[in-house]
Amino acid sequence: MFLIDHENNNRGLMDTSEALQIAQSVELDLVVVSQSKEAPVAKIINYGKLQYQKKKRQGNSARPTVKEVRFRPNIGVADYKLRIDQASQWLSKGDSVKFAIRLRGREHQYREQAGELLDRVVNDLAQVGKVQSLDKRSLIVQVIPA
């Protein structure tokens, strides 16, 4: 097997028992990194640390990818444009975006305008994303990357 020691030096082709003795002398583990047909590649490392880092990487990759944007129906033009630009950046990175319009008090009388605002959001993000779900009753739209 090819051996890479704890200082990342390539020790070359070596017998397994000899590699195990080297690993035990530095109080680390001998881990097979790559199983190739000619000779496997083994590395002298702390196996517990390797498992911890692997678990940590999996935790980072499993992060929630749904970003939420909330606004009111009487949002200003500049604020609307800022939120659409941010959402398009998120969509280009691969995250999905959920838009929710919140109505308060008398704003419930203008529910149709809030629905039109959702349609405007969908049209503005048509180039970078597509609609996964559109619920005009609860005024929520979820857009996924195209």
Can you summarize this structure?
With 146 residues, the protein is an alpha/beta fold. The protein has helices at residues 16-25, 47-61, 77-93, 111-124; strands spanning 2-4, 10-13, 29-34, 41-45, 66-71, 96-101, 129-135, 140-145.
Describe the structure.
The structure is a single chain. With 146 residues, the protein is of the alpha/beta class. The chain folds into 2 domains: 2-60, Translation initiation factor 3 (IF-3), N-terminal domain (Ubiquitin-like (UB roll), Roll), CATH 3.10.20; 66-145, 2-Layer Sandwich (Translation Initiation Factor IF3), CATH 3.30.110. The protein contains 4 helices and 8 strands, in the order ββαββαβαβαββ. The protein has helices spanning 16-25, 47-61, 77-93, 111-124, and strands at residues 2-4, 10-13, 29-34, 41-45, 66-71, 96-101, 129-135, 140-145. Strands 2-1-4-3 form a 4-stranded mixed beta sheet. Strands 5-6-8-7 form a 4-stranded mixed beta sheet, with helices on one face. A hairpin with a 4-residue loop joins strand 7 and strand 8.
